[in-house]
Prior knowledge:
alpha/beta, Rossmann fold, Helicase, Ruva Protein, domain 3, 4 domains, 5-stranded parallel sheet, 47% helix, globular, phosphoprotein, transcription, HTH_Fis, Sigma-54-dependent Fis family transcriptional regulator, sequence-specific DNA binding
Amino acid sequence: MKAILIVEDDRIYARTTANWLVKNGMNARYVLSVDTAKDFLSNNEVDLVLSDFRLGDSSGVELLEWMKTHGYSMPFLIMTGYGDIPGAVEAVKKGADNYLPKPVQTEKVIGIIRELLGRRETRERPEQAFYVCKSPLAVKLREIVRLVAPADGLSIMIRGASGTGKEWVARQIHSLGKRSDAPFVAVDCGALPRELAASELFGYKKGTFTGATEDRAGMFAAANHGTLFLDEVGNLSMETQVLLLRALQEKRYRPVGGKEEIQADIRLLAATNEDLERAISDGRFREDLFHRLNEFPLYVPLLKDCEEDIIPLAGFFLSYANGELSKDIKGFDRDVKKAFKAYSWPGNIRELKSVVRRACVLAGEDWITLKDISLPVDVKPSDDYRLDMERTEWEAIVKALEITGNDRKAAARLLGISRSTLYLKLKKYGLI
């Protein structure tokens, strides 16, 4: 049973919330202060933290930053009263997964908590966290990842178009490497304000600039002993690039406004969809940093070049969309599959996921049809009776597999077909 820690300085409210979570099948404990929460986290296994925004003289944000500094990566939710919502939103910007207006005893909150706990499970089991692609280019990439992941001292640059899954590749490298038990911290360099990038990466000291009311650790500290993933690294300013290069070369860094250097024990992975060689010639990226990051380049293929994976990936995203949207869509009809294969997917895997989620919302029947996907491709609709036959066959195969506990030999016997015929149909419907 998943363990949830409630941090709330109102004892009655803390006990009420804990009891409510227990009634909903969760193992909930509560503490009344930030200091007690730190002690509890240091001595107990916790899967999710649910913290009040205001905690006496302290705050949930202080606890969140302490957790990040000390390598705790479990989901973190902020509870807040109406007047503190702006502060809670700021907490989300600093790394909280969501904020929940008080009172939190609603079914919606249970859904949010279960979703976050489910995400953590997939992070802990990375091989099951994503469809394992079977196209030749994807298989080749996966084999290279397996070989390079244990090479801890090697700098890896993950290159590929937007939406191809570069962060997932980085997570695979981390999970198969020597630091898999330590934090994985992902930073979107494109979302960092240029003037604040250095303080976000390396932290800052109190009084360094307006608003720096206390010392704050940066992403390097949060990733200590683990992996720091810098996505879209080409967006960093030249000044930040200098600091990053020095930190990587010296394995030490200095917080903004600080005097003492801190040891940097991290594995750094970088990714970009930009032509960094052109950025170097344009004077926007340092050549020495490029060579430091690009010791071993990995190239993530476009979705359109992995045609064998398009339908299975769509099915994978549909299974998640069904769970998140409380739907029970069985699959895609023949015309949709033809449209998926005919489309060029400029947004790659990210676009496919969005199309599937939207179609799951719009679908008025058990199957997603052409009218639900709105892709700019010319696909002539098939005869309805052919689609009905396919749907019936798909349902029969799924039912047979369920009855036989996924025993293909027994399922084929139940369906009255050979094992080889069943295998071909499983492949046809994206069930393997």
